[in-house]
Each structure stands twice: as C-alpha cells, then as structure tokens.
Amino acid sequence: MASVYEEKPVQYRLVTDVGELRDVVGLQHKVWGPEPVTSMQQMRAAILHGGSVIGAFCEGSLVGFCYGFIGYDGKEPYVGSHMMGIHPEYRDRGIGMRLKLEQRLWAMQAGYGKIVWTFDPFESRNGYLNLCKLGGTVSAYIPEFYGLDAGGYPTDRFVVEWALSSDRVIRAISGQAEPPNDASVYPQLLAIEYRDEQVTGMGETALHSLLGKSNGLRLPVPRAASKLKRLQPDVYKVWQRHFRELAIASFASGYQVVSCHQQAPEVQDYVLERQA
Questions:
Q1: C-beta of residue 268 within 8 angstroms of C-beta of residue 128
Q2: Is the pLDDT of residue 183 over 50?
Q3: Best exposed site among 46, 70, 193, 210 by fewest CB in 10 Å?
Q4: What is the DSSP-derived secondary structure letter of residue 264?
Q5: Burial letters for 116-135: b for 16+ Cβ neighbours within 10 Å, e otherwise?
Q6: 206 three-state secondary structure
Q7: Whole-angstrom Cα distance, residue 240 to residue 69?
Q8: Contact of 116 with 58, CB cutoff 8 Å
Q9: Per-residue pLDDT tens for 22-42?
C-alpha cells in the first residue's frame, strides 16, 4: 500500500519570508543536527544580493529546500549551490531531483549558465544523482573542505559543475541520456575485495602506467559508506586516503568524472574519461 506521504502533492516555490527562512533553519537541524546550519540572516543577505532559497512544501509545511548564492571564478558569475535538505519522512520521492531542476530554472531565468556545488564522493547515491540523473561532471577534488568531522575523518569533497544548457544536461534531465561507454573495460584504480560483508583486501593499480594512456578509468567507493565507517573505521580511512590520491592525480592528468557504474553489490565505481 502506498505511504500517506506519496498521496500528498508537493509544491515548489521561492522562499523569502523571514518566518519561512526560520523554518528552513529548523529543517537543517532535523537533517544534520545543530552544528552545520546556515542562519536565517545569512540566507536573507544572500537573497538580497542575487541568491535564492527554493522550498518544497506539502500541505503548507516545509519538507525540503535548496539554497544557493552567487559565485565568481574570475571568468563569469555562477550559482554556488550550498545546501539541499529533505525531511527524513519525505525522502525517496524525487524531491531532491525536483529541487535541483527548480534551481536550474531559476538560475537560467536570472541569466546564469552554471551551478556549482560540492558533495562527499563516498555518498554514492548523491554521486548517482549529480552525475547520471542531472548530468553534472567533476574535475576537482578538495581535501578537508570543512576540516575534520566529529569522528576525525577528513571532509573531502568532489566539486560538481552543472552546465545548465549543455546537451549533456538536457539529455540527462529528460531521461534521454546517451548510453555511457562500457565502463567495465576501463581499468579500476583501486581493487576491493569483500568477504562476508567485510573488506578483506585493497590493492592499488600502478597509476603511472595508466594515466594518459587509457581513455577511461574507474575509481570505486563503498555503497554503504556509513556502515563501513562504523564497522571498519581503519579500512574506511585507508580507502578514503587512496581515493583522494588517485582522484587528484587523475584530475591533474586531464580526466573528468562523467558517470557511475555498479560493478559489485558493495561497490560503486566513478567513471572517469580523458578529456580532449
């Protein structure tokens, strides 16, 4: 039987009212806890200077939001999409995808051609959304973007670029993306062995022999990263360190993350292809 939440429509609109911005802060607490919060005052200032907060509402209650402000890379202005949060009871309904599409529409109407944001590459579901469903690409890696988290783990981040009017993005968001190249033929930069739901081995490929020679590469992350962090924290740290080194070297050699590939139940590969 369908859940009660699936039966209720969700509306999307800009949020500018102080009271509703306070609701956005409250939802941030519900999603992330007390620390990583953007204040009402910060959002109000960003809106004044060209940014936006887009809310998802169900029966008048805020159930999701997407917040962005204006950035500049020395060449052109763009939208920096800083936060997106969904109420836990409303996840897996496509609200995140719809919020990004609403943000894209707003940005294009405001004259921007690109949206940029960061995400933890070990959050494989976010990776699939950002790359495969939205059509973003990744060419940059930032170690310890927010320093260390409460558990002492580096908060490393991929940087997503979303070229709003590109053929790639238009095909992706319309569900008509071109079939990706057969990623299974690309060498995997980090070989992971699982046994009884435990990582039992990790081997690194000779990267120098592949960079610039292979048209594509695969870089794996755990599909259940939080579980791995909880049960095998030392393995998680080693995996994260290897991933960081390999990603940075690959980007420096002209590769770009363009897709995701599930090569095993426990592992999702990021697919990197060399750019002309």
A1: yes
A2: yes
A3: 193
A4: E
A5: bbbbbbbebebbebbbbbbb
A6: coil
A7: 30
A8: no
A9: 999 999 999 998 876 899 999
